[in-house]
Design a protein that fits this description.
Elements (H helix, E strand, L loop, with lengths): L2 E7 L2 H11 L4 E8 L4 H4 L1 E2 L7 H10 L4 E4 L3 H4 L2 H8 L6 E3 L7 H4 L1 H10 L7 E4 L4 H10 L4 E5 L8 E4 L2 H12 L10 E5 L4 E9 L4 E3 L4 E2 L2 E3 L3 E4 L4 E4 L6 H21 L6 E10 L2 E8 L7 H4 L7 H9 L14 E8 L23 E5 L2 E4 L2 E4 L3 E9 L2 H14 L17
Parallel strand pairs: 1-2, 1-4, 2-3, 4-5
Antiparallel strand pairs: 6-9, 7-8, 7-9, 10-11, 10-16, 12-15, 13-14, 15-18, 16-17, 18-22, 19-22, 20-21
Helix pairs in contact: 8-9
């Protein structure tokens, strides 16, 4: 059996997934839509925007696609999987990614919070507010201890979460959010108590009844070293996570992962794809900060290189409800990722800077394209996060040092990266 695969997306996450798919003995042809200069070297890019659903359907038909993997959240929130499942013959394609209703676990913070409340999944105390009940929101803020967390209900490109140091700031930021600071995404705002602990990310692939646990990771969202400054899409990641021991794993599975899968079944919400659990550990107890309905970025660049199982087989099993008792093979070594960003990111930054990459590449090193483009023969910057450098190592420090060594060798104007990824792990 040989299968044709189509990956939707253009970032480092999709490049990392593509690398694993290409390595599979079950892989026939691999396409990435629209892809990037990195995926173009190992697969076949198709230059179509991810919001052109009709063209994606034509691509599926023309290329005889057997498995589609959706990388980013926006097409899922916009109903790509519903569109395709309604138009593709039944059982003709495996769609890795949830339908629009299930995608609300990520696209609506309010939906996710209410789901967790119904399923008794541990999460921070919260309230949901719109402009018409802003004074009730002020009263709720007054009841909370500081700092106070404000979250835009909808998708805001990873920038819709604010941590306010005092109540006056929280009230002012709430006014601005409800007035459209993050567009329609913040017309509804979730206000939460602040949980003080250490965060990490857990991932499963589920067919809606069974699931497979993928390697966990810890990512670093802040632009500045020591986790300071503005939030970004992620400046690096580490897998495995040293504090995720068997005791914590058991707690997370029993109180969070299994109740989430069971809750989807109870509420008749079909699901085929990844669930990303953004978790925080407070005094030894895990809580859900957020759900995502796809893999994270840059976590994927640390997680997928550790997966030794055949991912095409894994996707096929997910789509045909054969995940039960699946034996996932994971590399016990560390994989770490450092993001090379554009100067000025996550605020204003310039594109089109020429990138010089050394020809020699250690076999333990991987480079995933996140925000690049080709201009003739010249590789140029084309985003805030430009490249993800990942490395395997016997321990975290060994892997990080390899990443930093390569990060120094890659050159472009304004290059910036954090040198302290993994600083808070043993």
């Amino acid at each position: 059996m040989k299968l044709n695969t189509l990956i939707i997306g253009s970032g480092g996450r999709e490049h990392a997934i593509c690398r694993s798919i290409v390595k599979s003995p079950l892989s026939k042809n691999v396409f990435v839509l629209p892809g990037n200069p990195g995926t173009d070297k190992i697969a076949n890019n198709i230059n179509i925007p991810i919001d052109r659903f009709e063209d994606i359907l034509k691509t599926i038909q023309e290329k005889e696609i057997d498995i589609l993997v959706c990388g980013p959240e926006a097409p899922l929130a916009d109903g790509l999987m519903d569109f395709l499942s309604e138009r593709c013959p039944q059982d003709s394609i495996i769609l890795i990614g949830p339908n629009q209703i299930a995608a609300q676990l990520e696209s609506s913070k309010a939906f996710a919070k209410l789901f967790m409340q119904r399923q008794q999944i541990p999460t921070a105390a919260y309230g949901i507010f719109k402009s018409e009940n802003i004074y009730e929101a002020f009263d709720f803020i007054d009841q909370l201890n500081i700092p106070i967390v404000l979250k835009a209900d909808g998708l805001a490109a990873g920038k819709g979460v604010l941590i306010c140091k005092d109540k006056a700031e929280a009230r002012q930021e709430l006014r601005e959010m409800i007035s459209g600071k993050f567009g329609d995404a913040s017309r509804t705002v979730v206000i939460e108590e602040f949980l003080d602990g250490i965060e990490f990310s857990l991932f499963v692939l589920t067919d809606g009844s069974d699931f497979v646990l993928l390697p966990e990771a810890k990512d670093y969202k802040r632009i500045g070293e020591g986790d300071t400054g503005l939030n970004t899409g992620g400046m690096g990641s580490v897998s495995p996570v040293s504090f995720f021991d068997e005791t914590l794993k058991e707690k997370v599975l029993e109180s969070i992962v299994k109740p989430t899968i069971l809750g989807l079944q109870k509420e008749n919400i079909p699901y085929c794809g990844f669930i990303f659990f953004g978790l925080i550990v407070v005094k030894g107890e895990p809580f859900v900060i957020e759900y995502n309905v796809r893999m994270g970025d840059p976590e994927t660049e640390s997680v997928f290189p550790r997966i030794q199982s055949d991912v095409v087989d894994l996707f096929y099993r997910c789509g045909t409800h054969r995940l039960a008792d699946y034996n996932m093979k994971i590399d016990p070594n560390y994989c770490t990722t450092i993001i090379l960003a554009s100067g000025g990111y996550p605020e204003a930054f310039e594109k089109g800077k020429s990138i010089l990459i050394p020809e020699e590449f250690n076999e333990d090193l991987m480079m995933f394209h996140s925000g690049t483009r080709l201009s003739g023969e010249s590789l140029q910057t084309n985003g805030g996060r430009v490249l993800a450098i990942s490395s395997m190592g016997k321990n975290k420090n060994a892997a990080i040092e390899k990443c930093k060594e390569m990060a120094e060798k890659i050159q472009y104007e304004g290059k910036y990266y954090r040198k302290d990824i993994g600083f808070d792990l043993e």
